[in-house]
TrEMBL record:
Keywords: Repeat, Signal
Organism: Datura stramonium (Jimsonweed)
Signal peptide residues on this chain, from the entry's feature table: 1-23
Gene3D superfamilies: Gnk2 domain, C-X8-C-X2-C motif (3.30.430.20)
Pro residues: compositionally biased ranges: 254-271
Domain of life, source organism: Eukaryota
Residue span of region Disordered: 246-273
InterPro entries in UniProt: GNK2, GNK2_sf
Coiled-coil residues: none
The Gnk2-homologous domain, residue ranges: 28-130, 134-242
Any single Pfam family the record assigns to this protein: Stress-antifung
The protein's name: Gnk2-homologous domain-containing protein
Length: 295
């Protein structure tokens, strides 16, 4: 009797622990394919393959914070690419991938095409590893304006991003580059760019270029911060330091005052492509907007 009671409490405790541990933070953005034909059924071969793969994922990341694999046979073949931001500590990287593999099943239940982005890592199912995937393209941006938008975008940021694109493409397996520059009015511009490790140097460059060329018409033009997210590459620019930077990589402190609070704008219209776009807000949520466009 006593033993049973103890066991019950133990199980209950475990259940609670498990329950707490499955509360993953929201993605900064995610997308799931919208067509029923890309859905799979519970307990199908695809479901089993996916779960096998996801459960092993964070343990199998390589030293560069990258993982890609495929298991199963068509049509139940599952392919996944998971990658951490190039400057993440390995423990944060594993935690992030762990979170992403659980969160993706929650936000894209039974969807075969799914992309999830955290600040620290990205997850995508990518059936053709080694090819450039530009769709969906998601912009997430801070709605506050910089003080001299044209100078910011066309001079300082441009020079910075162009040099980062080259450095990242030529970066070997770790296609990641980060730097800062002095923007207008003594603002420090922080930027990072990254491609998935499976891309060639040329494909990486093309992917980043593709996103970069959309900046002039992007609603993120002249804003304090923006994430430009595609399955094969992404880049960020902002006038404040990045989260979770490795010690020693922090940019010098800046004296600019924090951005004023901003009212969130109404949600943008959904694009007509075959993806639904969703925006999950950051902790500093009210300063962010989402905009997404099918290529
Ligand atoms: C997808 O399936 C749901 C219910 O199973 C149905 O209501 C919806 O119309 C379907 N959508 C498409 C695009 O076929
Ligand atoms: C992962 O999720 C836990 C909560 O389950 C959270 O405390 C932690 O910050 C998350 N880590 C990352 C890197 O997302
Ligand atoms: C995701 O995986 C499914 C099934 O393998 C595939 O149909 C879909 O095209 C993949 N998405 C991308 C972007 O590769
Ligand atoms: C940013 O600038 C644009 C164009 O000058 C203006 O319409 C918009 O209201 C500004 N946004 C904020 C949050 O000040
Ligand atoms: C970062 O940018 C500065 C110019 O702003 C440049 O001198 C420096 O070489 C860059 N760092 C790297 C690692 O490319
Ligand atoms: C299954 C698969 O495609 N694995 C590839 C993952 O990426 C590495 C390069 O980083 C390839 O060598 C693997 O073949």
């Amino acid at each position: 009797m006593g033993f049973l009671k103890w066991l019950t409490i133990l199980i209950f405790q475990f259940y609670n622990l498990f329950d707490l541990s499955i509360a993953q933070p929201n993605f900064i953005s995610y997308a799931c394919a919208d067509f029923n034909k890309t859905e799979f059924s519970p307990n199908s071969a695809y479901d089993t393959n996916l779960n096998t793969l996801l459960s092993a994922l964070s343990r199998n990341m390589d030293g560069d914070g990258f993982y890609n694999t495929s298991i199963g046979q068509d049509p139940d073949k599952v392919s996944v690419i998971a990658q951490c931001r190039g400057d993440m500590e390995s423990q944060i990287c594993r935690d992030c991938i762990n979170n992403a593999t659980r969160k993706i099943l929650e936000v894209c239940p039974y969807k075969k095409s799914a992309f999830g982005y955290y600040d620290e890592c990205t997850y995508s199912n990518e059936s053709i590893i080694g090819t450039v995937s530009l769709n969906p393209l998601v912009f997430i941006y801070n709605t506050a304006n910089v003080s001299s938008p044209d100078e910011f975008m066309q001079e300082d940021l441009r020079t910075l991003l162009e040099s980062l694109q080259i450095r990242a493409s030529e970066g070997g397996k770790r296609k990641f580059a980060r730097n800062t520059t002095r923007g207008p009015d003594f603002q420090t511009i922080h930027a990072l760019v990254q491609c998935t490790a499976d891309l060639s140097a040329q494909d990486c460059f093309n992917c980043l270029r593709n996103g970069y060329e959309r900046l002039p018409t992007c609603p993120c033009y002249g804003k304090l911060a923006a994430n430009v997210l595609m399955p094969s590459c992404n880049f960020i620019f902002q006038t404040y330091p990045f989260s979770n930077e490795l010690p020693g990589t922090q940019a010098p402190p800046q004296s600019a005052p924090p951005p004023p609070p901003i009212r969130p704008s109404p949600p943008p219209p959904l694009p007509s492509g075959n993806f639904n776009f969703f925006m999950e807000l950051l902790a500093s949520s009210s300063t962010y907007n989402s905009f997404s466009s099918p290529l």
